[in-house]
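Record Flavin monoamine oxidase family protein, 565 aa.
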Amino acid sequence: MTSTVPNAVEHTDEQQPPITMFGPDFPYAYDDFLAHPAGLGQIPATEHGTEVAVIGGGLSGIVAAYELMKMGLKPVVYEADRIGGRLRTVGFDGCDPSLTAEMGAMRFPPSSTALQHYIDLVGLQTRPFPNPLAEATPSTVVDLKGESHYAETLADLPQVYRDVADAWARCLEEGADFSDMNRALRERDVPRIREIWAKLVEKLDNQTFYGFLCDSEAFKSFRHREIFGQVGFGTGGWDTDFPNSILEILRVVYTEADDHHRGIVGGSQQLPLRLWEREPEKIVHWPYGTSLASLHEGGEPRPAVTRLNRTAGNHITVTDANGDIRTYRAAIFTAQSWMLLSKIACDDSLFPIDHWTAIERTHYMESSKLFVPVDRPFWLDKDEETGRDVMSMTLTDRMTRGTYLLDDGPDKPAVICLSYTWCDDSLKWLPLSANERMEVMLKSLGEIYPKVDIRKHIIGNPVTVSWENEPYFMGAFKANLPGHYRYQRRLFTHFMQDRLPEDKRGIFLAGDDISWTAGWAEGAVQTALNAVWGVMHHFGGATDPGNPGPGDVYDDIAPVELPED
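=>
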């Protein structure tokens, strides 16, 4: 629930910059880098028009390609499925095309400031997302162990829920210096951020989320831990994250990544699609009117990559699904990292062995969703006996776990996300078809809302996804387990290739699973910008002295390095 994360600091200065997801591991101001009039840097004129392979057409790949194009390079984008990656917006067959479902990313925090740069750039609009107990949510029902509670604010829930909220606030303050870190991030106090985080990384790298709760006096009650796991904070229950590293959770709460979410009007996939078609006003080498689409034959990316290997001169040779072989002096890999272990035949020489180990150890979480279109937002009807909404945003320990109600006005068709689940809860749905899933979900929701006939409002077939079953993803997003900090550091810092042997340079890793904030589009953008800096540096380019890039200031803000022995 949004209100369970403590508000550490009262903010009276309206000019103060918002908190940003730039830290705490690498407190670099990507939003300032993007906003600077000098741009992201330049390459020597002798390199203009040089091709760079960009493998993966998700948000990270499209952002990287867009910025490389502006510098005068020629990005060649490879995409196995569709532009967008996990920004995947789909419609419903036979229904109004304005009805859409977000199969992947659907809610974005204001702290995603680099992401917001591109949302604004392509002219997209956002609106509040109806999370549990959020201001944009008319009502929320919490249904645990067969008992339902209706609430419009946290104060409407029984005292035990407020006790759990207080316990989480105390747990964060006592175990993770929440107020101090939140303040340092908001003020962009890099020395203080690094001082706090260095101690916590050393102390907590081996700790699970659940172990962190158990070590807190505030959560000595199993009942409180159970309720917290099922109801949680921000977006709902977090018990599926209990086995993960507590460092992953702290990154989310410090940066308010789970608060004040907004959705993109018309669907998130519009962002990479618009960037693909966009003709930048400021562009080097290429004529005005150039876009990523215009640089690709037929306006489409090249097909899936099937082989990657190093060839003479330390070049990267790419073979695609059509059998076409092309060789590049530089490449950016933005697809999910497990593709390098399964779908793509790779030379061991692509990366140092410790980077291969980190890729192999990457832990992905499963996730599934199912949406149905309905005739209208009937949930806003009032129950004649109680005066309450007949149906609400729902958190439950039943199979559905989280149910979201999405509308665009009282007289228009609407969409219900009947279920959004992660990990073990997602795997429970895996063998079932979309219609089978819907039937189980309607049964569960019928037990919570016995007077509501959801089925009579459904106007089209359900759409569903299980990301663990998607052949080019095999999971929803990375989530480090305890002890994985060192692996993540290797992957994130891979763009600093002067530190690598010469025969291991030229291919750059990016994507949200390379970032410290996996599962968030902001991480995809940040790692794309790191890779752009890396490619620029690789070709002998440089940033403007007034706008140093992430690699220029690396030594001052490098992630904490834990001993290997």
